[in-house]
Amino acid sequence: MLENYFPILLFILVGLAIGVLPVVMGRMLAPNRPDAEKLSAYECGFEAFEDARIKFDVRYYLIAIIFILFDLEIAFLFPWASVFRDIAANEGFKFFGFVEVVVFLAIILVGDAYAWAKGALDWE
After folding, report:
1. Do 35 and 71 share a domain, yes or no?
2. Domain extent for 19
3. Are 11 and 42 in a shared domain?
4. What SS3 state is found at 81?
5. How many Å apart are CA 12 and CA 5, to the nearest integer?
């Protein structure tokens, strides 16, 4: 019974070795010569001119969340599109497959209209 779990244990050990071994080798083999220039903070090649912990506007996060939400919902259309030929070929499922995607798109459209009506997509 335990011999069935040996490949899983081996997989875990190899995965840990691939993750840990380069870090350990880098620590041991790489030269460590820190100086003030290397330890200074910079952003995009420029010296930091403001505090990195400035507060962003909440609308920025709202737009990002809405983008992720609708992007993921559109990603659910890809599996439907990949089996569309099979759905169209099966006479019993042809109408059901069409209604299913229309309902899904209607939900996305209602959510988009709601976000638009609430002003979530407006940026002043």
Report:
1. no
2. 2-47
3. yes
4. helix
5. 11
The residue type at 97: G
- Summarize pLDDT for 37-80 with one digit per residue, the tens: 777 776 666 666 666 677 777 777 888 888 888 888 888 888 88
25 and 73, same domain (yes or no): no
122, 60 in Cβ contact below 8 A?
A: no
Do the Cβ atoms of 97 and 105 come closer than 8 Å? no
Report the length, in residues, of the chain.
124
Which pTM does this prediction carry? 0.48
* Count of structural domains within the chain: 2
**Is residue 52 in some structural domain?**
no
DSSP class of residue 47 equals E
Residues 75 and 29 in one domain: no
In a domain, 122, yes or no: no
What does each C-alpha distance from 3 to 6, 16, 72 come to in angstroms? 5, 20, 41
Map tokens 């779990």 to a residue: 5
Domain contains 27: yes
Residue carrying structure tokens 């959510």: 111
Q: Do 70 and 112 contact (CB within 8 A), yes or no?
A: yes
Nearest to 63 by CA among 9, 115, 5, 4: 115
